[in-house]
Design a protein that fits this description.
The chain has an 18-stranded antiparallel beta barrel. The longest helix has 17 residues. Helix 4 crosses helix 5. The protein is built from eight helices and 19 strands. By secondary structure, the protein is mainly beta.
């Protein structure tokens, strides 16, 4: 780092060295040997440029690294140096005292006015006087910080000091409540390109007792689900390419995914992932988007997940829950812009987006839901939507509103065509709805204890119209005739309150005991054909327990939708029955779900929960109301019985970190449902206890 310094020719002789002005040389000119003071100007200049005893060679002083100097200061009059020489003598200690008392130089090397005590310039010695040898100069003692005396050398680097203590957060963190074991994504680097790949492999062994279902009229013996046990797996891969901290490309795919082997279901194949055959090799593409962080906001374009609040309505299928698993989710081809209009780091965020829905709880761009059982000619649902979200977020709390305007169409046909004949009476299902979704969360420390209270909520309202839900199967002769649209008026929400006791520090900090309770509500529809749709359905990835909603209600609605659209039973199925299966989401019910987690060690969870639920309206099976003309429940019994039952769940999970980049997960969970009278059949026979459980083995990387 050394820099060459060019000195002017004659002006340098009487002037002080510019390095001296900045405190980088030890001796003022007046303290130099007398032989140099009487030398010719050229000799003086040469002596200054190449001194006989450089500072780096003085005894007792370590070598000094070259220092780049700023431009030289303008020449100064010699009076200050003469004054310093007269009052200092030849010793370094007296020189330093003179420098401090004269006020001729500041600590920063800036010239100051000469003190009146300095007198006139020093007179040269008589010509006859023999030059005296220079006095021995002792090694200068270190100067205190801020000394005004010139310093011999740059201060040596300070001794190594310990760095900041390890990160020991004392605030609230989501992992204190629910530790997923996932490997955190490293923050982007501002000066390089980075590539990383994260993901997981999960293997499940699942077992159930055989569930009683309403049999189809043409096969009365098929009165159960047929599924008792099976093995299921998925591999999720999430690559990420980053260019500095400005641009990133993110992908995600499940490959493979599906049932490896086990029992298969019967008469429920009008729902996605029906497990009606062994298909371990399925491929489910999820994300592929480009993200650019501009100075004024964030742009993202491509296929991506859509998630808001607790995930009741928009859930990306990538948020684990305490019980149960996740799959598919709300996936959209989106153009999004988000900004913080009050400035970066401020709490207000506004986002606007335009979507083509790839897949969610009511639409599927590829597979569709036409009444034909042949997957080769499925017609997809074209759903377009605009999204506006406003969020106020601080560390202890946040609140936001999410608005959606959606238009969905599906090309249908009353009588399917064939290779030789065109379809008859084609028509179009339409859905136009608006959504208002309010959500928020908070956390606060508990005074005098290492604990926090926390909570979150989400409430959603859906309103609009649709001609995809209309009169009973086979009751309309001309499917293309104009008809009044069905009104859509649904709402639902959930609230969670909890507390967590914290222990440990740093990376070993974890929630020792967690207790929380969730209450949820989803509107129901006691009359599917009264011209107003009132049924609200949670996204299936918002799991509540293991048995009631995720198993019993999911398969009962799937059986009803399947036999209602079977062409062997009805000539033309009612459009909109493809929306009947709940797929495991809460619908038409209210529930209370207390949960508790105890962690003996930070890597082990002992968990338990309960679900107490009842319907929010009469539990009416649309198939029986439409095709059979009777308002009955899904088992053929009294629909006015609202008691769904009480479920008890328990489980254990261990997370073993191998090398900092992979985590092995091992666990087991199970539940039992004591069914209520809402599942009684027409003879008053109850459904009986329902069991479900699974063994879990996973690898996070």
């Amino acid at each position: 780092m050394a820099e060459a310094i060019a000195y002017p020719a004659a002006a340098q002789v009487p002037a002080r060295d510019p390095r001296q002005e900045r405190g980088l040389l030890a001796e003022p000119r007046a303290a130099r040997p007398a032989s140099l003071r009487r030398a010719a100007p050229l000799a003086v200049m040469m002596a200054l440029l190449a001194p006989a005893a450089p500072a780096s060679a003085q005894p007792g002083v370590p070598p000094v690294d070259p220092i780049p100097l700023p431009p030289a200061a303008p020449p100064q009059p010699p009076a200050a140096s003469s004054c310093a020489a007269r009052s200092s003598g030849s010793g370094s200690g007296s020189r330093s005292r003179a420098a401090r008392s004269s006020g001729s130089c500041s600590a920063s090397g800036q010239a100051r006015p000469t003190s009146a005590a300095c007198g006139t310039a020093e007179q040269p010695p008589p010509a006859t006087a023999a030059p005296a040898p220079p006095a021995a100069t002792p090694t200068p003692a270190p100067r205190p910080v801020g000394s005004r005396a010139p310093v011999l050398r740059a201060a040596p680097p300070p001794a190594a000091t310990p760095g900041p203590p390890p990160d020991d957060p004392t605030g609230f963190e989501e992992r204190l409540v629910f530790d997923t074991g996932r490997i955190a994504v490293a923050p982007p680097a501002a000066d390089r390109i980075a590539v990383d790949v994260h993901g997981e492999y999960q293997l499940r062994y699942r077992a159930h007792n055989d569930l009683r279902l309403q049999p189809p009229q043409l096969d009365p013996s098929a009165n159960t689900l047929g599924l008792n046990q099976y093995v299921y797996h998925w591999l999720r891969i999430t690559p990420r390419l980053r260019y500095r901290d400005k641009i990133q490309i993110v992908g995600q795919i499940d490959i493979p995914r599906g049932m490896i082997f086990g029992d298969t279901t019967q008469y429920v194949d009008r729902v996605r992932d029906s497990l009606s055959e062994e298909r371990w090799y399925e491929v489910q593409p999820r994300y592929l988007y480009l993200e650019y962080q501009a100075p004024f906001g964030l742009f993202r374009i491509g296929q991506q997940g859509s998630h808001w609040g607790m995930g009741l309505l928009a859930n990306d299928g990538d948020h684990p829950t305490l019980f149960g698993d996740y799959q598919r989710g709300s996936l959209v081809d989106r153009v999004l812009f988000a900004t913080t209009p009050m400035g970066r780091g401020t709490p207000l965020t506004i986002a606007i987006a335009g979507d083509l829905v790839f897949e969610d709880n009511t639409a599927d761009l590829i597979d569709g839901d036409d009444p034909d059982f042949d997957d080769d000619d499925d017609v997809g649902n074209r759903a377009l939507q605009g999204v506006l979200a406003v969020l106020w977020r601080t560390k202890p709390a946040e609140i936001g509103i999410y608005g959606v305007l959606r238009k969905q169409d599906t090309e249908r046909e009353s009588v399917p065509g064939s290779a030789s004949n065109a379809s008859l009476t084609p028509f179009q299902d339409g859905l136009t709805v608006g959504v208002l979704d309010l959500s928020g969360k908070f956390n606060a420390p508990v005074g005098g204890a290492e604990a926090f209270v926390y909570g979150e909520f989400e409430w959603a309202f859906i309103f609009g119209s649709s001609n995809a839900l209309r009169s009973a199967p086979g009751s309309v002769i001309n499917a293309r005739a104009e008809r009044e649209s069905e009104r859509v008026r649904t709402f639902g929400g959930a609230v969670t309150l909890g507390a967590v006791k914290v222990t440990g520090t740093g990376k070993e900090r974890f929630g020792r005991v967690v207790g929380e309770v969730e209450w949820g509500y989803a509107s129901g529809d006691a009359d599917p054909y009264d011209g107003t749709t009132r049924r609200f359905t949670f996204d299936p990835n918002h799991n509540v327990g293991l048995v009631l909603f995720d198993h019993v209600m999911a398969w009962k609605t799937a059986r009803s939708a399947t036999i209602a659209q079977d062409p062997r039973i009805v000539n033309r199925a009612t459009p909109g029955l493809q929306l009947l299966p709940s797929k495991g989401g809460v619908f038409g019910a209210t529930y209370l779900n207390p949960r508790v987690i105890v962690r003996p060690w930070h890597w082990m969870d002992l968990k338990a929960g309960a679900v107490i639920a009842q319907t929010t309206a009469d539990l009416v099976d649309p198939y029986q109301a439409g095709a059979l003309g009777s308002y009955r429940n899904y088992d053929g019994g009294d629909p006015e019985r609202h008691d769904l039952g009480v479920e008890l769940d328990a489980g254990v999970e261990g997370r073993i970190a191998l090398d900092g980049v992979t985590t092995v997960q091992v666990g087991a969970e199970g539940g039992v449902l004591f069914t209520g009278h809402a599942f009684d059949d027409d003879a008053g026979n109850g459904l009986g206890k329902q069991y479900a459980g699974q063994l879990e083995l996973g690898l996070q990387y």
